[in-house]
Design brief:
The protein is α+β, with helices and mostly antiparallel strands. It has eight helices and seven strands; from the N terminus they run βαββββββααααααα.
Length: about 260
């Protein structure tokens, strides 16, 4: 499936000669020069312009507003391979989304049925143990004692190979869970908390105020609302890397650098 999403700076009209490459629900009646170029490119690559095929109110077709707050155009488009064009269920602009730009967020809903192999689904169900804890002498000694005691109980069993392997695997996993524990996957954006949610609500209100009344005072109010929590988190992580470097904690130092990269 080939999809192309871009700010083409192209106004696509409703000319009959361009159908069925374009739809009937464009914001503009006539295409500009970039719009004609976009249609020619789309036709040559066997694509379809899906952003002009769904009936919406004009306020949901806008993708860009000029600095004066009066001129609005539909210049951001979604293109898809003609073979898969029915997979795009809807395309529309969302004025309330805070993108920190004069363009509006354009969202395309895509639905396609895909087959997933059993091996791929089972791979994500596997448990990962926190093997880094084995570097601690107390944890390593506890794990060695636990695994030794469990294997001692298997010496007198006369099961077949498959049953013996199941017992070995179960004992290893049980000992690892009790002594080492499971690996906690890294959560995205650890700096994002209640304070950031408050800043987002404040910025959202400022943007809606600018949309309703595009005066310079509202523009300045929108630009003055900024989130500082992420900068504080990054500053703390950099100080942590510096501390690990000073105390020669190489493992955590390179691990932290890899997380940033």
């Amino acid at each position: 499936m080939k999809m192309l999403l871009e700010d083409f700076n192209a106004k696509v009209g409703r000319e009959n000669i361009f159908k069925p490459t374009i739809g009937q629900d464009s914001l503009h009646q006539d295409s500009n020069d970039n719009g004609v170029r976009l249609v020619n490119f789309t036709t040559s690559k066997n694509l379809v312009v899906k952003s002009t095929t769904f009936p919406h109110q004009n306020i949901h077709k806008y993708t860009w507003t000029s600095p004066d707050g009066k001129t609005r155009n539909q210049i951001d488009h979604v293109l898809i391979d003609r073979r898969w064009h029915l997979s795009v269920l809807d395309v529309g602009g969302f004025r309330g989304a805070d993108c920190d730009t004069d363009h509006y967020l354009v969202i395309a809903k895509v639905g396609e049925r895909l087959a997933a192999g059993k091996q791929a689904t089972q791979r994500f169900d596997r448990q990962r143990f926190n093997s880094r804890k084995l570097n601690e002498p107390e944890v390593r000694e506890k794990y060695q004692i636990e695994i030794t005691n469990r294997f001692a109980a298997l010496e007198n069993l006369n099961d077949n190979v498959n049953r013996t392997w199941e017992n070995i695997k179960e004992n290893i996993q049980t000992s690892a869970k009790e002594c080492v524990g499971l690996h906690e996957f890294k959560q995205n954006k650890p700096w994002f908390g209640e304070e950031c949610l408050g800043f987002l609500e404040q910025k959202k209100r400022a943007k809606m105020q600018w949309i309703q009344d595009p005066r310079q005072s509202n523009v300045d109010n929108l630009n003055n609302v900024r989130r500082n929590k992420k900068k504080a988190y990054l500053r703390a992580k950099i100080e942590e890397l510096e501390t690990n470097n000073n105390i020669q904690n190489i493992w955590d130092l390179y691990r932290g650098i890899s997380d940033f990269k």
